[in-house]
From TrEMBL:
Name of the protein in question: Sugar phosphate permease
Keyword Cell cycle: no
InterPro entries: MFS (IPR011701), MFS_dom (IPR020846), MFS_trans_sf (IPR036259), Sugar_P_transporter (IPR000849)
Source organism of this protein record: Nocardia tenerifensis
GO CC terms: plasma membrane
PANTHER family according to UniProt: PERMEASE-RELATED, SUGAR TRANSPORTER
């Protein structure tokens, strides 16, 4: 067997996939569960605290207003200070806020705990995304961000049985305490043990892999350290362009997620059947995320992949408005394909963001895009519910609307094609070798170009 394809060599070059990404995904799965587990507790809170429907909606939605506060500072702090230390601090704060929900005795206390949980979690995602950018060249980011996005289907599949077991054998207070303590006990330990701000600081990383990562980023014209500013993020047109696209996709995605059980309930009638079939769209979404991210990195054409996926989501969801609940297998098929298409664009999208957003707007820009985009998560359910009421309780108008939302997002993505082609054009400028870290240890053999020995998938 040649040295280039030896198991030892392959293992050496996949450490960033097997060390960094599993920890990042695990942390955000916990984050997502802590964000959404209130939906399982609401019936018990209604009984124990006497929460009205309006108060239940406020307790669920106030999280997103807190979530907005640290989005932009979160990305900025990760770039200008330390993503590792910043996320560690946020994990402690979010764990305390999540567990505090289990000790509340009034609506006011619950609202404060939920708001603070949103504040603490708000800085986590942009900092994690900045970490991924530091560890993966652009040619690999479609896959890396796609793997990160697996937190959505994983959390959707895990959250219901995990919360159900805790509510069965304990109560809602212990559910909040146990699930809130997970990031502090397990997530924080894994994060501090494995993750470093840059490859140069990771003792477990081989010199060959470290040099490959950093040399690839330099060859792609990307600085190893970003020194972004708030002003550059807020005044960048491309940042706001991405923010609009992300707002539309998040509006459609969360709207789809929230009314999906209702559509399936009309088709399959019983909660048991709905619970079983509702897992299938999440499985399909996980598979689609990986396939699209891998294809975008392998073939290029990130914009083409995004626009094709978002266009498919528009057609599927728009067409689903013509399907009646009595055609239950068509309903299920539309939900599977629609859910998969509605999030499979994620990997190429964030890879494109990190390529086109100017270095001066890098950290704060990631937070701005994610923060503004999450407003779609707030407005989507309300618009979907309003359209359902407008159509007499049906979901045809809602489905058509969210299909149109994805269609507009696909058109906005297409306008990025020329910019990305120019940004990824081969450069003949020499690599400034002084930017690479000095290593006085015994030199290792040169790392081949990715096209000769492609990076392994996680």
């Amino acid at each position: 067997m040649s040295e280039r394809t030896s198991p030892a060599r392959r293992l050496s070059e996949m450490k960033r996939w097997t060390f960094i990404l599993p920890v990042v995904v695990f942390i955000y799965v916990i984050c997502y569960i802590d964000r959404t587990n209130i939906s399982f507790a609401l019936p018990h809170l209604e009984t124990d605290m006497g929460l009205s429907k309006a108060e239940q909606g406020l307790a669920s939605g106030i999280f997103f207003w807190g979530y907005l506060l640290l989005q932009i500072p979160g990305g900025y702090m990760a770039e200008r200070w330390s993503a590792r230390q910043w996320i560690a601090i946020l994990m402690v704060l979010w764990s305390v806020a999540a567990m505090a929900q289990g000790f509340t005795n009034s609506v006011g206390q619950l609202l404060i705990a939920r708001f603070l949980l949103g504040v603490a979690e708000g800085g986590v995602q942009p900092a994690l995304m900045a970490t991924i950018r530091s560890w993966f060249p652009f040619a690999e980011r479609g896959r890396a961000y796609a793997i990160f996005k697996l937190y959505t289907p994983i959390a959707a599949i895990v959250a219901a049985p995990f919360s159900g077991i805790l509510l069965t054998y304990t109560d809602w207070r212990w559910m909040f305490i146990i699930q809130g303590g997970a990031p502090l006990i397990v997530g924080l330990a894994a994060w501090l043990a494995v993750v470093r701000d840059t490859p140069a600081k990771a003792g477990w990383l081989s010199t060959a892999e470290r040099d490959y990562i950093e040399r690839s980023r330099l060859e792609e014209g990307e600085p190893l350290q970003h020194r972004g500013t708030f002003k550059a993020a807020f005044t960048s047109r491309i940042v706001w362009h991405f923010a609009l696209i992300y707002t539309l996709t998040q509006m459609g995605l969360l709207g789809l997620t929230l009314w999906l059980p209702s559509v399936l309930k009309k088709a399959f009638h019983t909660d048991m059947k709905v619970g079983l079939v509702a897992i299938l769209p999440q499985i399909a979404a996980g598979v689609a995320i990986i396939l699209i991210g891998r294809s975008a990195d392998k073939r290029g054409g990130h914009v083409a992949h995004m626009s094709l996926v978002l266009g498919s989501a528009a057609i599927i969801l728009g067409g689903a408005s013509l399907i009646s609940p009595q055609q239950k297998w068509l309903v299920l098929g539309a939900m599977i394909l629609g859910t998969a298409a509605s999030i499979a664009w994620y990997g190429p999208f964030w890879a494109t963001v990190t390529k086109l957003v100017p270095a001066a707007a890098a950290g704060a820009g990631l937070g701005l895009i994610n923060g503004v985009g999450n407003l779609g998560s707030f407005f989507g359910p309300y618009i979907g519910g309003w359209l359902s009421d407008l159509s007499g309780g049906g979901y045809a108008l809602t489905q058509a609307f969210f299909g149109g939302v994805f269609g507009v997002a696909a058109l906005l993505v297409l306008t990025l094609r020329k910019k990305l082609r120019e940004a990824t054009a081969p450069s003949v400028k020499p690599i400034p070798t002084q930017q690479l870290p000095v290593d006085n240890s015994k030199p290792e053999r040169a790392v081949p170009h990715p096209s000769a020995d492609p990076a392994p998938l996680a």
